[in-house]
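PROTEIN DESIGN WORKSHEET
SECTION A - STRUCTURE
LENGTH: 243
TOKENS:
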């Protein structure tokens, strides 16, 4: 148990270190790409991590697919059906404001064995929102999810991967970034998304996708089929970090 905890802490620090390196290499704004997405009123942006972090610490052929910004009434359902057919478990980082009306989908995620994490309430840059506002936004989403599933999420993915140590001290959640960005939010083309992931992916990677675009769903299921054929197993972020 102690060994597992140590490994988990080591992997989390490694991911944090890569994020810090990313910030150093790219600067605070250059590492952010903006897009005029179809989702929300703010223009979402995502930090790109330059190297695969988790792949350096595991020998197993495992990867974790993660989906941010949902749930989406149509696309998330389509994804859940496709994953169930393939018996694959993934991690969803839910955005509080998208949950109302989609409670059944959240229950289905839980029932199907997926891991549910927190992606804050709205798509804001947490380091710019003020610590109290951030804590309120994250807590609000914790409660919404807990009211549906009976479980408080333990993992947080900050929108844009935007995070700092002060926030870490205030919130009792494990922050999870990613090591492969599918760029689905920018490409919105199934073939290109599949290529982008498959040219970067390695053992132990955490893949960033969004279940709010139809192309992301078809790409994700194709990626599952291709990587399964290559001998990869799909696990939740928790299984990846702890095992
Ligand atoms: Zn997001």
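SECTION B - SEQUENCE
RESIDUE ASSIGNMENT:
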């Amino acid at each position: 148990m102690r060994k597992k905890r140590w490994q988990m802490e080591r992997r989390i620090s490694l991911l944090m270190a890569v994020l810090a390196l990313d910030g150093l290499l790219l600067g605070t704004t250059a590492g952010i790409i903006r897009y005029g997405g179809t989702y929300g009123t703010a223009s979402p942006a995502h930090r790109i991590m330059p190297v695969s972090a988790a792949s350096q610490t595991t020998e197993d052929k495992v990867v974790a697919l993660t989906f941010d910004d949902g749930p989406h009434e149509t696309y998330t359902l389509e994804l859940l059906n496709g994953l169930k057919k393939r018996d694959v478990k993934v991690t969803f980082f839910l955005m509080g404001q998208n949950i109302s009306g989609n409670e059944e989908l959240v229950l289905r995620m839980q029932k199907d064995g997926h891991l549910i994490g927190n992606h804050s309430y709205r798509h804001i840059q947490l380091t710019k929102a003020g610590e109290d506002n951030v804590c309120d936004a994250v807590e609000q989403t914790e409660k919404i999810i807990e009211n549906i599933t009976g479980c408080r999420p333990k993992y947080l993915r900050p929108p844009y991967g935007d995070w700092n140590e002060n926030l870490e001290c205030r919130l009792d959640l494990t922050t999870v970034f990613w090591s492969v960005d599918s760029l689905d939010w920018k490409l919105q083309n199934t073939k290109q998304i599949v290529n982008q992931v498959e040219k970067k992916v390695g053992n132990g990677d955490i893949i960033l996708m969004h279940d709010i675009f139809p192309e992301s769903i078809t790409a994700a299921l194709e990626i599952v089929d291709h990587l399964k054929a290559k001998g990869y197993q799909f696990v939740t972020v928790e299984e990846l970090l702890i095992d």
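SECTION C - NOTES
The first helix runs from residue 2 to 30.
Residues 44, 68-69, 119, 123, 159 surround zinc ion (CB under 6 Å).
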